């Protein structure tokens, strides 16, 4: 991508858009990361909490030690069960109980940089999966692992890193946790132009990783 936008509205809805002029001297017909879902952009929302999994355990599973159930379940379709839901599971009371013991998490990201590297790593979807399925992992940590210095984008370039522009790029995003949004950004190159509105309604603009100071502004 070249220009990206991530938005969180007052209702907690998130959306993302990415545009680009394409890769310089690209081959005719090339499809880059910008129109590819999960590479140049991604948005996802889920409930995260302590409610139990809905389903009925298969009879055979109850006879197997708990430590072996997941192993056998990967090899034997239907071993774990996932039977039909009971009337109790479908009741309004149970539904409300599960919601009360959960919290909404959502993420949205837009990428910029070498599109082929974003495609190779499925960068934005991979960052989302890390934040969603690794306990305690924030989106900021996941984005740093993908787009930060020494991250997956850089590693995907191999010995071509620093020679062709391959692997270079960055990601901007927003993470929503229980109604509170947090700005996320990281990159592995010299700088990345980005701007946002902070919690006080002030407009913020940055290029490099270090925060601007009043002394720095005066010196320039």
Name the average pLDDT: 82
Low-confidence stretches: 51-57
What letter string, H or E per element, gives the SSE order? EEEHHEHHHHEEEEH
Alpha-carbon distance between the two ends: 30 Å
Our count of helices gives 7
For the sheet with most strands, the description reads: 4 strands, antiparallel
Note the beta-strand portion: 25-35%
Helix content: 25-40%
- The backbone outline, from C-alpha atoms, is globular
- Which strand order do you get reading across the main beta sheet? 3-4-5-6
Please identify the oligomeric state. Answer: single chain
Radius of gyration over all CA atoms, rounded: 22 Å
**Class inferred from helices and paired strands:** alpha+beta
Number of strands: 8
Tell me what you see in this structure.
A four-stranded antiparallel sheet has the order 3-4-5-6. A two-stranded antiparallel ribbon has the order 1-2. The protein has helices at residues 66-75, 92-100, 115-121, 123-133, 139-147, 152-156, 214-219, and strands at 3-8, 14-19, 41-49, 102-113, 169-177, 180-187, 194-197, 203-206. A hairpin with a 5-residue loop joins strand 1 and strand 2 (14-19). With 220 residues, it is an alpha+beta fold.
């Amino acid at each position: 991508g070249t220009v990206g936008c991530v938005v969180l509205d007052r209702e907690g809805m998130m959306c993302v858009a990415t545009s680009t002029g394409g890769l310089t001297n690209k081959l005719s017909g090339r499809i880059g990361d910008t129109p590819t879902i999960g590479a140049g952009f991604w948005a996802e929302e889920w409930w995260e909490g302590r409610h139990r999994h809905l389903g009925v355990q298969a009879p055979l599973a109850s006879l197997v030690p708990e430590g072996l159930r997941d192993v056998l379940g990967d090899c034997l379709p239907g071993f774990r069960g996932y039977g039909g839901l009971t009337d109790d599971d479908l009741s309004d009371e149970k539904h409300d109980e599960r919601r009360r013991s959960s919290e909404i998490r959502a993420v949205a990201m837009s990428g910029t940089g070498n599109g082929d590297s974003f495609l190779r790593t499925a960068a934005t979807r991979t960052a989302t999966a890390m934040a969603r399925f690794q306990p305690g992992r924030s989106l900021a940590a996941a984005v740093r692992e993908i787009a930060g210095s020494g991250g997956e984008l850089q590693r995907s370039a191999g010995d071509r890193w620093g020679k062709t522009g391959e692997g270079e790029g960055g990601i901007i995003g927003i993470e929503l946790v229980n109604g509170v949004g947090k700005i996320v950004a990281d990159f592995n190159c010299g700088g990345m132009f980005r701007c946002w509105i902070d919690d006080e309604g002030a407009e913020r603009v940055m290029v490099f990783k270090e925060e601007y100071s009043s002394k720095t502004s005066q010196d320039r």
